[in-house]
Please model this.
Amino acid sequence: MMNDEEVILVNFWSSPFGCRVKIAMEEKGIPYKYIEEDLFNKSSFLSAINPVHKKVPVLVHNHKPICESLNILEYVDEIWSDRSPRFLASDPHQRAQARFWANFIDRELYEASQKIYIGKGEEQVVGKNEVLRILKLVEGELGDKPFFGGDNLGLVDITLVPFYSRFYTWETFGKFSIEEECPGLMAWAKRGTSWYAMANKRPNSGTRRDSGEFESRNPSRYAEGILEPLRGGLQELDHHPTIFSLQKPQELFKRTLVIPDHKR
Ligand SMILES: N[C@@H](CCC(=O)N[C@@H](CS)C(=O)NCC(=O)O)C(=O)O
Model:
């Protein structure tokens, strides 16, 4: 990597999509600057680098923005192809399969899971069943392999593992146990937390906006917060417990990051 290269990740701390990019960067050992975007008060910079969706994450490499997390993962793998691990295999069929599963997770899991904690009654049950259907299919694809990518993590692993931090929330609101329903997938998720935590343990350098304040004050907590973002905080809420329905979602973010000692 050339010294004068500029790599910036624009993200929002709780984004599972942005977390994919952090894992990719840390796994390949690519230094980058981090800019925390305030999604509740979006910057003109975000509009400039992602004019179509105005969403994070965006990777800005030598002043050129790359949007969409899966797209970014492939870009990172391609640009820094000399750095291991490779997220995509050299075999075209394996690559196609990995893209299929990464897209499947991307399109289906997030949406289905939202029904569990935004929906009520029957919709919540539908969400739970959808999530379980998806997780079981994904578990079948994992089979006996340690990682989706084989012996090393790959595109599918990086795509899925940030959702592990939400399993607890899904289970709490859906009243089910992923461990019981998908033991193989849970074993994989636990293996994944080591690189997941690694991606978050180093304090990021660079500019921060206000919503990143907590992270800069307390980077080690940030790692745990990302691992278990909604644990604890949601249990304390006595009204509709979704981050999307709160008038001040930032308040929940702050609360949920502070994990009580007995829950560590
Ligand atoms: N498909 C996109 C999803 C990105 C996404 O939904 N980002 C959320 C944060 S988790 C966002 O920026 N939301 C702002 C908005 O919807 O306006 C990706 O994979 O990068």
In short: Residues 92-118 form the longest helix (27 residues). Residues 12, 15, 17, 39, 54-57, 68-70 surround glutathione (CB under 6 Å).
